[in-house]
Amino acid sequence: MSPAPVLRVALPTPLRQLFDYRGTAGRIEPGMRVRVPFGRQRAIGVVMSTAATSDLPEEKLKTVLETLDERPVFDKGLLELLQWAAGYYHHPIGEVLAAALPKALRLGASLAAQEERWWLTPAGRAACTQGEPRRAPRQRELLAALLAGARASHELRAQFGASWRAAARLLGERGWLASALSPCAAPPRAEPPPSPRSAPPLNEEQQAAAERIRASLGRFGAFLLQGVTGSGKTEVYLRVAEQALAQGRGALVLVPEIGLTPQLVGRFRERFAVPMAVLHSGLTDQERLLAWREAYAGGARIVLGTRSAVFAPVANLGVIMVDEEHDASYKQQDGGFRYSARDLAVMRARGAEVPVVLGSATPAIETLHNVAAGRYTRLTLTRRAVQAAPPRLALIDLRAHAHAGGLATPAVQAIERHLGAGGQTLVFLNRRGYAPTLACTACGWVAPCRDCDARLTVHLGAHALRCHHCGAQAPLPQRCPQCGFAVKPVGQGTERLEETLGELFPGVPCVRLDRDVVRRRGDLEAAVRRIASGEGRILVGTQMVTKGHDFPNVTLVVVLNADQGLFSTDFRAPERLAQTIVQVAGRAGRGTRPGEVLIQTEFPDHPLLTGLLSEGYEGFARTALTERRQAGWPPFSRLAAVRDSARTAEAALQFLTEARALAQGTRGVRLLGPVPAAMAKRAGRYHAQLLIESPERGGLHRFLEAWLPQLHGLPGARHVRWALDVDPMELF
Ligand code: ADP
Ligand code: ZN
Ligand code: ZN
User: Fold this and answer.
1) What letter would DSSP give residue 239?
2) How many CA atoms lie within 13 A of 276 on its CB side?
3) How far away, in angstroms, is 439 Cα from ligand 2 center?
4) pTM strictly above 0.90
5) Rounded distance, CA 541 to CA 262, Å?
6) Residues 11, 97: Cα–Cα separation, whole Å
7) What number does the ligand 1 atom closest to the CA of 236 have?
8) Using an 8 Å Cβ cutoff, are 484 and 709 in contact?
């Protein structure tokens, strides 16, 4: 027998290297998890490759403790994708792999269909209630944890650490604990439909789009499926998924954080009789594990999920679809590994040699650039599937009209008119709470957040002042703390807007949709039902209303404050504003009645707004691309940002200044900054940013490769937390 090979293992540490271990007998393949000794602890890592020899001297080469998988958790394609991502985002491979795995698997849960479960025997239950064993607190805690019911061994390991098993063994010897292997619980699944609902015949454009994508099954192709909300994109996804399934392959469907509505899941469930796995951030660790397992075992033929689902296993992957591809939630904005799930979806499709479909009514400027460059094929749906007339857009000049509670007279009249005609109205305001500011009527004091460069928002229902940036909360003062005079809320939030509308239209039921009213699972569905049933006549909402939901009876949309995005320092702000306006507008008139969209602004002559009105999103995108080309912003250059935060503004800038000095004389990249963030102080820490720009990708990556490893050793690094963001979505 040949000696066990050397395993090159990726471990979740910030060290940018692999670690060599001696394997044990038995077959080990790349992509399998192993438990290994690491320093004085144990760690779980993923085998990246095997080798005959190691550079480590034999006596230093430790042996793996345990192999956790019978077959790889990451197949070859995923492993390659993750390796590519580690390089592209310049992030340590071990942390990249860890980010791609559900927490339970990171902690060692089994992927097999059986798991070891532990429970209390009657004697153990009695012992536990008597506080036994008195001398062994660890064992006592373990008993107490099982009082509520049986637990899987990986859950116990997660709660008690590696030493749990020794405690469990001792308790087992006393007859207080029992364990057995049992089949893993199947994920809770909605009742399957009696028979799959049949698809409507596709219209010509849908047909053509589905046909183009079908022709690409079995090889890589990137498609932009562009169509306004309601034009039938989801029907195309369904058809494409059906075609992949018919070939015996699986489909991966990504949706934005906020877009994974029960409506959408329902449409997939009712169309297909095959099991689906749904992955999103609202799942418990256990639910996520179960869904992953379903996908891994090939039981789930369709995997539908938010950002991190791009790493989900899909047996025999046949196609990837990314709905609302422009959505910012596809970019991981915090933590260490800041990836774009949309971009990784394209890479994954390329590696797997399958088509990828990016759908949007308002494609990202980058995506449109990829179409123009011939990298993506555009498929367009120009007509609404159900109703042909697009909504009419008009501006209301806030300077020329009286307004009460944020609503200008023409808007109030329009609401009256639409309600009179039996329609519903949606009023969009991207600001929750009662009012964004509490101010003194005498001395000009405004309630500030102690820990942020921000004002506190008035929440009247909760009788509180809250910071929307750090979560700080304070009681609502009755008088000005500075001069003792009366205070009053200034400006509009959705809570106040609801009140105003109640006064303007007494007796007309109003439904509010924002994060303050939608807190638990089910809240959103309940609110959506009240609107869909026609019970709510006016809908007030934030960003939350712009995606996914179908409100066929909404005939009027009023956008209250379009001006926030017009004058930002972030070059992407206009794009986000245009997307929001078009998406909100898309809520109007999806039924059989034509829609009307009114946008309130103090800048009715702003080229972005006039362009959007006269030429729609296409016109806007053309202008935006020209502006970006002239300014040298992405997609006409490549960007990365190093962001840091520290206890003082000086420390935050100091580290980045040192980092910049290191780059002195480098060619091929331009460094911009460092500058303090627009809101420098957040949650008591000061934030700053250094931008690195290069005309082409290769130059940027060569620079980062040489420069980044040096940053850890800078004197200023000790006083900051910092992270690299390649292709940053939000600049500050
Ligand atoms: P999008 O995803 O672009 O917003 P959907 O696929 O949700 O559009 O379609 C909007 C509405 O039109 C849905 O209610 C859908 O069932 C319906 N629909 C889409 N395509 C067709 C079709 N070819 N025939 C009939 N109804 C359709
Ligand atoms: Zn005062
Ligand atoms: Zn704050």
Assistant:
1) H
2) 27
3) 8
4) no
5) 19
6) 8
7) 6
8) no
Query: Is the fold of 392-435+491-627 the same as that of 638-726?
Result: no
Residue 203, ligand 1, Cβ within 6 A: yes
> In this predicted structure, what is the pLDDT of residue 724?
95
Tokens of residue 386, six digits: 């159900």
d(CA 362, CA 385): 17
| Cβ of 233 below 6 Å from ligand 1 | yes
Q: What is the dihedral of CA 356, 360, 362, 365, to 10 degrees?
A: -10
Strand partners, 541: 428, 513
**Selection from 231, 532, 235 nearest residue 388 by Cα:** 231
Around ion ligand 3, residues with a beta carbon closer than 5 Å are: 449, 451-452, 467, 469-470, 472
The residue ranges of DSSP E strands in 191-235, in sequence order, are 221-227
Q: Which two tokens stand for residue 58?
A: 């034999």
Residue from 235, 357, 362, 380 whose mutation best tests the ligand 1 pocket (most atoms within 8 A of CB): 235
Distance CA(188)–CA(541), nearest Å, equals 31
Going by alpha carbons, the residue nearest to atom 23 of ligand 1 is 202
Q: Match domain 204-381 to its CATH number in 3.90.226.10, 1.10.540.10, 3.20.20.70, 3.40.50.300.
A: 3.40.50.300
pLDDT at position 113: 63
Q: Is the CB of 206 under 6 A from ligand 1?
A: yes
Q: Sheet holding 670-682: strands in order across?
A: 670-682, 685-694, 638-646, 720-726
SS3 call for 656 = helix
230 lines ligand 1 (CB under 6 A): yes
Distance CA 359, CA 237 (A): 9
For residue 617, the 8-state DSSP code is H
CB of 86 closer than 8 Å to CB of 23: no
Closest C-alpha among 638, 649, 659, 651 to residue 725: 638
Cβ–ligand 1 contact at 232 (below 6 Å): yes
CATH class of this structure's domain 638-726: alpha beta
- Cβ–ligand 1 distance for 46 under 6 Å, the answer no
What helix, strand, coil percent values describe the chain, rounded to 5?
A: 35, 25, 40
- List per-block mean pLDDT (blocks of 10 residues) for the chain, which spans 732 residues: 82 91 87 94 94 86 90 93 96 95 91 76 87 86 85 74 81 86 53 59 94 95 92 93 93 86 82 88 86 87 94 95 95 91 98 97 95 96 69 90 90 95 92 94 93 94 93 93 94 95 94 87 80 88 76 88 79 89 78 82 89 88 90 93 96 97 89 91 94 93 94 95 93 76
Total residues found in the chain within this entry: 732
Residue 586 Cβ < 6 Å to ligand 1: no
Q: Is the CB of 357 within 6 Å of ligand 1?
A: no
CATH assignment, 392-435+491-627: 3.40.50.300
Q: Give strand ranges (E) for 31-70.
A: 33-38, 41-51, 66-67
Q: For residue 456, which ligand has an atom nearest its CA?
A: 3
Which CATH architecture best describes the domain 6-106?
3-Layer(aba) Sandwich (3.40)
Q: Structure tokens of 213?
A: 């994508």
Q: Residue with the nearest Cα to atom 25 of ligand 1? A: 200
Ligand nearest to the CA of 682: 3
Among candidate residues 42, 33, 146, the one with its CA nearest the CA of residue 79: 33
Contact 542, 431 (CB under 8 A): yes
pLDDT score recorded for residue 197: 66
